[in-house]
Write a structure and sequence with these properties.
By secondary structure, this protein is α+β, with helices and mostly antiparallel strands. 28% of the residues lie in helices and 27% in strands. Bound molecules: adenosine-5'-diphosphate and magnesium ion. Magnesium ion (MG) binds next to α2. It comes from Persephonella hydrogeniphila.
């Protein structure tokens, strides 16, 4: 066979596999877009473990009416314009891949309005095929609806787990962002029932609202030339669960988890790390959950030092949440 370029629709479907592994990855991208758009109200609806519906409504800046179509094209972003930007990135997104990927493997609709315009736009894409674009009345902000994920890629659809398992991943993503963004309103509705309604509150309260079993939290904090590490331990809650954030991004890092566990055993914890952007490489994978440090040792030392502050009987510093 001779060599030929793949059609864009096929490129997008293949690329979608990188970004969209399961319903929870769709939710992650939609939450990040809402937060990047400075929303402080995020309402999510999920049906059938996200296989049937994932909908997110935000009150963020919205998309310029002339950019709505552009938003679902591949490698289109409003968030960076040069390679330098990704080393000091303040937003979650920058690849411009999410909406194009998601809309190529679902029945996708987006409604968005900016405050300066009397009307918004509604866009409908089905499996990567443009269906409809029109003016529409809408509140300021953006609503994205993703139906029948993978309806046109049956091989991927077969890889999805049970509704129950997919829902577990969805709730996990929701919780990760809701913990960090405690100053924002979050709602999660599952199959018609509200599972979480979280009003803006202090971080400790947010954690207790999400996990009603937690009643006591102990703070830890350390700041040095490497950066800042702080968080909460819940000594009584022995779930073996923990949430790690670096510069506001939920991450997984097995070495850090091991360091923490060796100190506090199975107690529930959250760890928030603030590091200079050049210390961290989020660019490892499009799903951006794995993280690599340019220098490992100083970060590990910082976390160990922070955990040592748990041993002091009274910790009474005030923690102010810093901007990412
Ligand atoms: P990225 O987030 O990497 O830029 P996406 O495909 O997720 O790429 O989104 C493409 C663009 O669409 C974003 O850069 C942004 O300008 C716009 N956009 C997407 N979602 C929203 C939203 N909820 N509110 C405002 N703008 C959005
Ligand atoms: Mg994005």
């Amino acid at each position: 066979m001779r060599i030929k370029k793949l059609p864009d629709s096929l490129i997008n479907k293949i690329a979608a596999g990188e970004v969209v592994e399961r319903p929870a990855s769709v939710l992650k991208e939609l939450i990040e877009n809402a937060l990047d758009a400075k929303a402080d109200r995020i309402e999510i609806k999920v049906e059938k473990g996200g296989k049937k519906l994932i909908e997110l409504k935000d009150n963020g800046t919205g998309i310029h009416p002339d950019d709505v179509l552009e938003a679902v094209n591949r490698y289109t972003t409003s968030k960076i314009s040069s390679i330098e930007d990704i080393y000091s990135i303040e937003s979650y997104g920058f690849r411009g891949e999410a909406l194009s990927s998601i809309s190529s493997v679902s029945l996708f609709s987006l409604i968005s309005r900016q405050a300066e315009f009397p009307l918004g736009k509604e866009l409908i894409i089905e499996g990567g095929n443009f269906k409809h674009l029109s003016d529409t009345g809408a509140p300021v902000g953006t609503t994205v609806r993703v139906k029948n994920l993978f309806f046109n890629t049956p091989a991927r659809e077969r890889f999805l787990k049970s509704e129950k398992t997919e829902l577990k991943h969805i709730i996990d993503v929701f919780i990760r962002y809701a913990i960090y963004h405690n100053d924002k309103y979050f709602k999660l509705n599952i199959d018609g029932k509200d599972l979480y309604i979280l009003n803006p509150s202090k971080r400790e309260e947010r954690i207790k609202n999400i996990f009603p079993k937690i009643d006591q939290t102990v703070q830890f904090l350390e700041e040095n030339h490497t950066g800042k590490a702080y968080g909460y331990i819940s000594p009584e809650t022995r779930t073996g669960k923990g949430y790690i954030y670096i510069n506001g991004r939920p991450v997984k890092n097995s070495i850090l988890s091991r360091i923490i566990k060796s100190k506090i055993g199975e107690s529930f914890y959250t760890l928030f790390l603030e590091l200079p952007p050049y210390f961290v490489d989020f660019n490892v994978h499009p799903a951006k959950i794995d993280v690599r440090f340019r220098k490992e040792k100083p970060v590990h030392e910082l976390v160990k030092k922070a955990l040592e502050t748990l041993e002091k009987p009274q910790i009474s510093f005030s923690l102010h949440q810093q901007k990412r």
